[in-house]
Amino acid sequence: MKVHHSLFCLIFVSLQVRSSRSVETHYGVSGGNITFPCSFLSSGKIKIFCRETCEGENILIRTRDDAAQIGRYRTEYEREASRTFPVLQVSILELTRSDAGRYQCGLEDSPSSDSFLDFRLVVVDALLDGNKVPHLHRDAGSSLTIACSFEDSGRKRLFCRGGCGKDEVLVQTDAVRADRGRYSIEYEKRRNAAVLLVTITQLTQSDSGRYRCKLDRAIRSDLDRDFSITVTDVPDPSTFTPTATQSFSSTSESFSPAVSSETSSLCQKSAFKGQWLISFHCNFILMI
Predict the structure, then answer these.
(1) Can you name the CATH fold of 126-232?
(2) pLDDT of the residue at 247
């Protein structure tokens, strides 16, 4: 009876450890690269990297090699003696917005019950850590998402235009998410840090200017990150104006200048040699 009881406890603890693992969120900048380290309790020979679930076309890489790359996806397995646990480094190169989502990395043949890890990827236009104030350029009609990273958490979360004065606050909340019209914020509390994700959709030229994401703290000084954006209108193809050459050729059909036999011969000779560009030029002159 005691033996069965002990086995039950061991199985229960193992399931609890697996289910208690939280899904980490990682932020990558559009156009850049990102690497996520997957640490495991035991080693394995088959390394696997997937999107969503490790089934069918969702499998990005499945290999026995310590290093592999398929397209923009890469894996590298590290098992040096200096490391306590083996690590599978998974990377995505040249990030795009469509790369955002959930991923899995794992050791398919590992005896450990924790042989797979999940992580969430968020692709942003810029990641601010306070070292500089970026100036971003966007087309009208597009959207902009910025991740503001802080060393500490805050009681209130704000997204402002300008310096967060009385009439400059776009969104303010003490919740995890909030939105107001085209503006939204999403807050993530980490172990020793926090990330405030701010978004503006359907950008217009009037959105050009300076912005701030801010954490309002009750006791210590507030934390903030600034950035600037310039929004440019996209040219409308329907307003295209024909060039002077096009206008002239369309209105000069009645004009027929005399062409020397030498010029005509040159055109025919060029056409015979297959120099289509010169031949076209000569025909254009004849049309005028």
Answers:
(1) Immunoglobulin-like (2.60.40)
(2) 43
